[in-house]
Task: structure prediction
Amino acid sequence: MSKDERLYQRQRADLVDELRLKGIRDERVLAAIGKVPRHLFVEPALRYRAYRDEALPIGLKQTISQPFTVAYQTMMLNPKPDEQILEVGTGSGYQAAVLYEMGARIFSIERHRALLERSKEILQTLGYRIVTRHGDGTQGWTACAPFDGIIVTAAAAEVPKALLEQLRRPEGGRPGGRLVIPVGDGRGQIMTHIACTGPDTYEQQQTHTFRFVPLVSG
Ligand code: SAH
Result:
């Protein structure tokens, strides 16, 4: 391992400790964050900041989410091995990599082609087998539905209906799918967890306020 890699590894371990202190107690989530090389998902000039708990620019006015936010959303989604998970807003690819480390099958949609090309390349280099698509994630991904979990990593003014429809329905004692989505306007969004409880019923919980880049449809 090179000197730089040892340094990044130490910084990553410190970030995991920081997230634990900030209230992330899910060891599976912490282990995944402890593995994914976040510095490779940001441009070289910003690598020295990759393990600070902050969002960073990735171009086209978009950001890689703050590690606390990634950890929080992942904890809320609680992806289990072999579950089918859809991410809306691939961005840098970092969140997808964290989900993949937890053993789930990941599908991810991004509307900016240039961002998607870059994230595909890094995910592939690192051996993260994630299925990606360019397009509008508010429509979901019909061909790969239903999903056990859907995570939206951009601010939604309202919950897209297509995403609710593509959640797995409960069946034979198996619970329905769940959607984790920040809902609100430009000033702040409330993290929202929606579980599918029947053919056309949902249970919603809202927790803390976050700030995301906007979810843009069309
Ligand atoms: N999960 C990303 C966060 C990126 S920020 C990461 O780990 O880096 C949110 C991303 O959502 C941006 O890249 C933005 O282009 C994308 N986005 C916004 N609206 C979208 C939509 N309707 N469909 C797909 N992607 C969208």
The first helix runs from residue 3 to 21. The chain has a mean pLDDT of 97. The domain at 3-210 is CATH 3.40.50.150 (Rossmann fold). Helices lie at 3-21, 27-35, 67-77, 94-101, 113-125, 161-165.
